[in-house]
Amino acid sequence: MKSSRWAKVLRLPEVSSFGILCLVVVAFVLGNRDFLSPLNISNMLAFLPELGIIALAMTLLLTAGEFDLSVGAVFALCPVTMALLVQNAGMSFTLALLIGFLIAVAVGLINGLLVTKIGISSFLVTLSMLFVVRGVALYATQGFPLKSLEVDNAFVNLLVGNAYIGPFRIYASFWWFIAFVALAIYVLDYSKAGNWISAVGSNRDAAVARGVPADRVKIWLFVITSVAAGFAGLISALRISSASPVAGTNYELEVIAMVVVGGTALMGGRGTIFGTLVGIFMLRIIRNGIVMVGVPGLAYNIFVGAIILVMLVMHALMQRRHGRA
Asked: pTM (2 decimals)?
């Protein structure tokens, strides 16, 4: 009984992903002893929440059988909008913050309605929205970054303030990320909404026949994913004190890679927050590690592409073997 239970666990895609993650860490430690230094770990944790928060929301959306390619553009537009409203329109930051997030809600709502009510694929809808949103950010700023964000210090400290825990410097954004992890686990694994999400991704027609509001579920997930991207963009802009119209370029592909590498099915029906965490750490570690061991940073995409291919092949072989068994 125990052996069969362990066999089922070992067949889980996220378990093999975790094994690859361990091998990657060992390789980088052997390549550079400073890889596990408090300074380097602190630097990795500082950047991790920005993509990680979006990846958690994308996990829920992918589990429902859809994805969003506009998240990288929303990542840039939200802080750009807030900065423009504060600096050029003299608006209070609180109101600018509300408008920025309302724009993210609008983008997600439009994506969701076009996908569910018009029947256009999420690939085409969100790809088009990517160009629209990115174009708005570029036009509004004439392509130049906004150098400063006039924000109350208390708010900055709430989102990106940092403090030392032992030798490690931890940003407040990391604790926000942990909160998002806990919320995502609850939603996907312990709530009725999680059952609805998985059911819609597995077989939409069957889910609807059982009374699941499939369209409403997908629309909400598009909105949540877009708002998560806007929130992550705000964290990034506050951390570097600048809002750039080109921030988040190609983030949409990197986020999807994190989710898929972790074991969430690209076609929907199965999602894993633990697997997404593995994917988030894996890509963040690879981006940092290749520089630490002396590999040019431009080679990052080669490593990411190779890891994705290896993981997809492993997942496919494991599913085929499990199917035959």
From this structure: 0.92
Answer yes or no: is 5 within a domain. no
126 part of a folded domain: yes
**4 within domain boundaries:** no
pLDDT, tens only, 102-118: 999 999 999 999 999 99
Contact of 137 with 77, CB cutoff 8 Å:
yes
The first and second tokens of residue 201, run together, are 């991704």
- For residue range 63-116, list pLDDT tens digits in order: 999 999 999 999 999 999 999 998 888 888 889 899 999 999 999 999 999 999
- 3-class secondary structure per residue, the chain: CHHHHHHHHHCCHHHHHHHHHHHHHHHHHHHCHHHHCHHHHHHHHHHHHHHHHHHHHHHHHHHCCCCCCCHHHHHHHHHHHHHHHHHCCCCCHHHHHHHHHHHHHHHHHHHHHHHHHHCCCHHHHHHHHHHHHHHHHHHHHCCCCECCCCCCHHHHHHHHCEEEECCEEEEHHHHHHHHHHHHHHHHHHHCHHHHHHHHHHHCHHHHHHCCCCHHHHHHHHHHHHHHHHHHHHHHHHHHHCCECCCCCCCHHHHHHHHHHHCCCCCCCCCCCHHHHHHHHHHHHHHHHHHHHCCCCHHHHHHHHHHHHHHHHHHHHHHHHHHHHC
Owning domain of residue 275: 10-324
Beta bridge partners of 169: 164
